[in-house]
Design goal:
Elements: H1 2-12, H2 14-17, E1 39-46, H3 56-62, E2 69-79, E3 82-87, E4 97-101, E5 114-119, H4 130-166, H5 168-183, H6 186-197, H7 201-211, H8 213-227, H9 231-238, H10 243-251, H11 256-280, H12 291-298, H13 308-335
Antiparallel strand pairs: 1-2, 1-5, 2-3, 3-4
Pfam families: BPD_transp_1 (PF00528)
Organism: Winogradskyella damuponensis
Protein name: ABC transmembrane type-1 domain-containing protein
Length: about 350
Amino acid sequence: MGVIACIGLISVFAYLFAPDASKNANQMHLSIHSKPPGFQVQMLTIPSGIETEQNFFSKLFLGSNNTDTEIPIQSYSLKNGVLHYVEYASDGLQGIEKQIELSRFPDSNFNDYIENRSFVFGTDKYGRDYLSRVLIGSRISFFIGFVAVFISLIVGLLMGSLAGYYGGKVDAFIMWVINITWSIPTLLLVIAITLALGKGFWQVFIAVGLTMWVEVARVVRGQIISAKEMQYVTAARALGYNDYRIITKHILPNVFGPLIVISAANFAAAILIESGLSFLGIGAQPPMASWGAMIKDHYNYIILGKPYLALIPGFCIMLLVMAFMLVGNALRDALDVKT
C-alpha cells in the first residue's frame, strides 16, 4: 500500500517532482543523448522573449509551455560584450564555437542563464531527462488501472447482475456473450478495439476496460445466484421491493468482498496490458511519456552496453504490478471468511 500510495502521489504531482517540468518532459538535447546516470553538463538557456500565459494548475498538472532554447555547452567566455560558447560534443570531440549578443538576456545578465545540470537517470536517445520521463510516465500506468477497473465494474456489475438474478434466457444470452469475449485473446481484443477507436491516450483506457469486464461479470453472477436464495432477499420480495432495489440495496453490498479482490488483480493486469500496447506502438503516442513506450524505444540498448535505459521503466512496471498483486492477495485473505 505504501508503494502504491507513493507512486500515486508522484503520478498526480509529477511535474512538481520532475527536473524537466516542460510538457511531457520533452526538452531534447541530441548532443547529450544516451548519457549514463549521474551525467552532468553546463546548460545555456537562451530566452525566447515570448510571453506565455499559463495558470498555476495548468503548470502543475499539464507541464510548463517552455519556449526558451536550451543548449548544452562545454565552455563559455565573454569577449567585447559578446558571449562566446562552445557547444557540447561527445567522445572527446571539440564542439562548434558560437556567439550571442548579451542583449538577448534580460539586463544583459547571462550568468543567471547558465547552470550545471545533473541527470540522475541519465538521458534517453533523444537527450531528454530520463528521470523526468519516468516520473511523468507513471501517470499512464497508474491511472489506466483506475479507469479500466471503473469501466469493467460498471459493465461487469450490470451484465453479471442481470444474468444471476433473472436466470433463464437472459442468463444464457449473457453467458454466451461472456464466453465469446473470453475466447478471444485479451491482447488481440484490446488491439482490435484500439484500432477501431483510434490511437491515443483515452482510447487505450477504454479498450482495456472493455476487455476486463468478463471476470467481474462471472464473479457477480455466481455471487448473486447464491445470494438471491437467502432469506433477506425473500423478505425483500415479500415487502414488495422492486428488482432494482433488491439487487442494488440488498444483494450487491453483500458480494463486494470478491469484487474488491478481483479489482486489485485487474489493476495489475491493466498496467501490463497498457505496457504491452505501448511497446507495440498503439498505446500512448509520442511525445507522451509511457513506461511501455520507453522500453520499446530503448530495448535494443540492452545489447549496446546501456541496459538501464530499458531496465529502469521495466523495474517500475514490475514494482507497481507486484504491489497491486500483493494487496490483492492480502485483501483475499482478509475478506475470506473461511480463512
